[in-house]
Amino acid sequence: MCGIVAYVGERTAYPILIKGLQRLEYRGYDSAGVALFNGEIRVYKCKGRVKELQLLARDKEIDGSIGMGHTRWATHGEPSDVNAHPHRSMHGTFHVVHNGVIENHAHLRRELVNRGYIFHTDTDTEVLANLIEEIYREQHVSAEVATRLALTRVVGAYGLAILCEEEPGQLIAARKGSPLVIGVGEGEYFLASDAMPIIEYTDRVIYMNDDEVAVITPGGIDLKHLYNDNDAKTPEITTIRVHIDSIDKEGYPHFMLKEIHEQARSIADTFRGRVSADGNKVFLGGILDVMPRLIEARRIIIVACGTSWHAALVGEYLFEEYARVPVEVEYASEFRYRNPIIDERDLLIAISQSGETADTLAAVRHARASGATILGICNVAGSSISRETDAGVYTRAGIEIGVASTKAFTSQITVLAMMAFLLGNKRQVLSPEAYHALVAGLTRVPGMIDGVLATEGQIKEIANRYKDATNALFLGRGILFPVALEGALKLKEISYIHAGGYPAAEMKHGPIALIDEEMPVVVLAPNDKLYEKTISNIQEVKARRGKVIAIATRGNAAIRELADEVIEIPPCDEAFSPLLTVIPLQLLAYHVAVARGCDVDQPRNLAKSVTVE
Ligand code: G6P
Question: For ligand 1, atom 15, which residue shows the shortest CA distance?
């Protein structure tokens, strides 16, 4: 949440900052701003998106080879010009951009007001800028020391970039809880909330750790621990492999549509190199060392948020069905606040596309103290969660930019399926034949996805027919119940239509009261062991004149007699039906949102990476 980008070197910083902010806009787009150092510090900032900032700066002085930028997802203070970052300290000595939340800001603000400070914004960040300035002026210390002293007084989370007008030629960065990556070039450095603004300039990066402060100049980086300035650290440089093409829309009108269409490839990328040449055994190098603990675990707890939480629910079905291990799925945000019973016999899996979700990271840290083994399923290599778990499996879905997650979801399920099949084999729950058949079945899924995507024209027509609905229901049973939840979430997120997902039989316990001739009900009804029961639920909807959009197995003529619309998927093993049935729901949400004129890639109020609690 909130994106930070900064540059220190010899080039003109402004175009690098603007391009970087555009790449980070998925983290928040309530306002944008830059500060440029060229003899003095110039700030341009405004409510709205990066394109608004470009308009504002169009005729302005934009020179300067040191600068920083910010794109905001508002926490403290409404989205407005004045609340946009960078924030200036009262006497103008410091400028700060911040991602995170300063929890004790009210207390610090009162203290500073008593010392004569006047505040111009509602933000917690301005408090920090003034606190650093106050220490700098009172204690006659360097900007770096003033920053460190100020941060020791702060409770909360931050990724920070700081410029001091009296100390030109340097940028200060600090991290606690909110990610920061330093890109290492030749005589130049980049700083950003993730690697995306950096990858076209360098593949060498340093992931900052919590409680680290860096002073960055064109000549080098001075990295220290916040509480121990004698402890200069040698930064660990990692080489990242991300292709610049993956952050292009490649002709699609939106990233979300591109990412929906990529799923045959992204699922194949997820299992590539992890399935034996004969196509029927799984190797997961990332969890090899902890395999004995996985086999012996008395229970698996999966924590996640949002779409990743829905993947976790699919994981529950997969692990219980194919490996016969009890599984509990928890919202990461609830997990640590209810004193969970967990010990070293348990295994916790954290699922996160970004690897930075604050609640999921906090759940990992909470579980760490219990002695449980902790695994990560993340998409972003080098992310905080991937670095704080004992072992893990990257989803390798490629960069996902659309705020509504699509391909990351199917790749997460692919990893969970591989883990469940492998564990089922190791625990001798699955016969060798059943294990091999399941793995081989998974490798056939990408080949089926084109068949599902071929229904897009039909889905677009359906979307146009139902675009004015005010409510929608999504029903599924068994392993498809989480897919119903995900379908409802997708529609809510990007089209702003209220939607709810339910296990189909639960409909009778309340949601059925909503059904009338205006109400679209999307029912996941492939030919699985619960098909007949699902058909009964469809009849219940039709008896109340609801409109049924069924996702059914190709060639099922009977369902056409009942449903208003039928979208077909190829026949497949039940284990893989979430991977195929979710795609029509993603496309339906997408086309409804487009038909309603919504901003699909940047829906209101949302951010892709939620780095505050
Ligand atoms: C936000 C995003 C969702 C995502 C969720 C969890 O709400 O908008 O798309 O599913 O965060 O994110 P994570 O990166 O942990 O999977």
Answer: 352
